Amino acid sequence: MDETVDADHISDLPTFIIHHIMSFLSPKDVVRTGILSTTWRKFQTSFPVLDFDQNNFLVKSRVKRVLPFNLEDMMSRKNFCKSLRKFIRFVDASLHRFCELGFPMQKLRISVSLLEVKESSPLFDKWVELAMENGVKELDFEVITDKNSVNALPQTIFSAKLLTSLKLFGCKLEQPSHCANLQSLKKLSLDEVYVNDQMVQSLVRECRVLEDLSFFYCFGLKRLRISEAHKLKSLILRFTYQELESVEIAVPSLQQLELSFSRVPRLLDVAECPHLRKLVLFLPHFNDQEFHPLISKFPLLEDLSIISLETLERIMISSNRLMHLEVYNCSGLNRINVDAPNLVSFDFEDNPIPIVSTNAPCPLNVLFSNFGDIDTHWYLNLMEFIGAFNQIGELHLSLNYKQVLFNIDEFRSCHPSLPLQVESLSLFMESFSLYMDVVPSEYEILLDGLFWIFYPKNLCLSPENWRYRPFVMMYPLEDNSDELMDRWPLLPQGDLWLRLDWCFPWFYDHLRNRSTNCSNGRQIKCWRHFLKGINVESFDPLRESSEGDLWLRLDWCFPE
């Protein structure tokens, strides 16, 4: 009988195809390919994407990575220095070995933590120069160290004609002695980099095909001006320090802009960006008088994110072009007026419940967090908010309460109408009485109020905030599991079963219990009369936990 041997057809593919396949692997898996065979060792050695991360050389049980804020907290300085030397030797040898092959370099990424920059700077300069000599197209260089000791990049980096992407972290950019010649650079990202105003203007002016520019918490800037960038499409500005006095952006080609400042500069001028389509604002001290004139400058705006504008009280938007709107964590907000007939998504999270007027056809995705008493006034505000929208897609309620003070008679006298439909409700509940058991009657009052407002098709009960009484946990099967399954038929999870803590059996019974005094004499019947069925859809366990999210399907039947 002839034996058949599986042939390795993959190894016979051209090298460039093998390298393309390897580009989808993680750096660790790329290294592992070298042990498959001599042929694969050659593929791995000539792979033009070089990714070196010092984290892979640290023994987790003995050494932790150096960060700017915990240089003195290392478990073992000696072990760290030893791993650093090993990492540097590996990078140096690997770079030289690749360069000797004569292949062009596609990408070089180096991430390293240092205690002392001066000792390693010459070696870093040599690595960068080797990459430049081999025509590197993407350079990602990350040096994590004390901010008082930064690594200045060599001048040769400004002559990298083939470089298309440059990402720097923890470095210093010094003014070159000659004009920069980064004629192919399309993406520039500076993260915790020391750079001055003149250097930025020079880079923007000389990088004529630059399309994507990002500043993340950089130092040394006082008067930032971005202009003469004729190809620039995306600009991100994130700053936390107080030195930045003014920001001027005059880029007619700009399409995406993010402004994130812990303190808004005295001068913020972005008027000359008429083609802007996406705007992200994270400006804690930006008020109504500043916000509305700003967004009025962008008539083509399609995507707007408003994040942590803590002093903003009103949002007044009228636009036929706006398609996506996000409003997050605006603690002072009390009124919204949105006239956007072409809006396709609207996310509203962690804000107060405002007065709303909308003309928007899309479903709303909303998250409300409540801290304090939940009274009838809170329910009325929630119902008025929900009723202002044509559709509610996903509704998330995170309720951290002291006590529930819902009065059904008071509520029905103000709103004698049927509940509103909600596609999906995710419920997170937690009492402030963290060290006390919460009795089911409190949840009963809470849920009664919610189901008088809306009826969800899908209901998710999450244990995320149930610190002491999770809704659902998963345990091994017990002898009485048959009785459990007969009463609450849930989906099995392999050799485990859902053991329902007291909250869910009570919740299940509460939904189905129509013998409760539910006010049959009123004009509108209690919500229990319209609930026709409860089905368990799924249980999604949390990672490395016996807890999880329980999804229920609720079938309702309301009169037309």
From TrEMBL:
Domain F-box/LRR-repeat protein 15/At3g58940/PEG3-like LRR span(s) in chain numbering: 125-259
Alphabetized SUPFAM superfamilies for the sequence: F-box domain, RNI-like
Domain of life: Eukaryota
All residue ranges annotated as the F-box domain in the record: 10-48
UniProt xrefs under Pfam families: F-box, LRR_At5g56370
Protein name: F-box domain-containing protein
Organism listed in the record: Citrus x changshan-huyou
